[in-house]
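This is your field. Have a critical look at both lines of this record:
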Amino acid sequence: MPTRSSISLLLLIALVLLIALTSFSGCRRDMSNAKRYELKGKVLTVEKDKHLVTVSHEEIKDFMDAMTMPFTVRDEWVFDQVAPGDQITATLVVDETESWLENVVIIKSNAEPGIKASPGAVGANTGDQVPDFALVNQNNQPIRTGQYKGKALLLTFIYTRCPIPEYCTLMSNNFSRVDQELQKQPELYEKTRLLSISIDPDYDTPAVLRSYGASHTGRFGDETFSHWAFATGTKEQVKEVAQFFGLQYYPEKDQILHGLRTAIIARDGKVHKVYRGNEWKPEEVVQDIEIVSR
């Protein structure tokens, strides 16, 4: 006859199994929400350390026009075999927060030595004085970067139609988290400002940026944009700012191939720190802002 302790042990085991099965099914539900698209194209560059391949791909039906884009690849074996010039087919997986290629098939190319990417712009360094760039904000009002002197300014580049979740969407979500964290410290909040600059001035009009910005701040119609502003300008004005910070971008049809740059500008108008890529964390940036705001 089972003892009370053995019954308790069996119940505990059953509970653990139930939790495990529930967690597993939850993961499966999350993955089922991801969208999948078939991709075909030519590899231009391979960055094994970043798990990235840049592909000049054909039109991705129902998702993206033909263009050149960097894609994350999680399978290590791919980087042991793929090379610039190879043709690939793959499944592009896109969920709410990230995207990657899976089911990669490599068609080796012996005819081409490969295409090398042009070296990226170095951009601003710590201590460089930021020029007084002219832009237009979400209210269609002229602004200048020089007007932020006296405040610590966190600046980044986005465009609202960006389809890759770990690029512009991640930048805006991270800025939202930074904005929320700064609100918890009213004194620090008053000493800081945030600015998101669109690299797509043809589409991202002030009205588009106003709608996009309000949705990311969470205040919608009540947003005043007094702390976090969104800006655009002429193509020349935007390019001038981007080049200063070392950001390269190339319009291709309805999309833009681009890198990522985020920077903290100190109260004296000089560059305090530049974050390249998307690996920076909101908590890290808040700490850096605290330092530069003292």
About this structure: The chain has two domains: 35-107, 134-292. Helices lie at 4-32, 76-81, 165-183, 186-190, 206-217, 235-244, 282-292. Residues 134-292 form a domain with the Glutaredoxin fold (CATH 3.40.30.10).
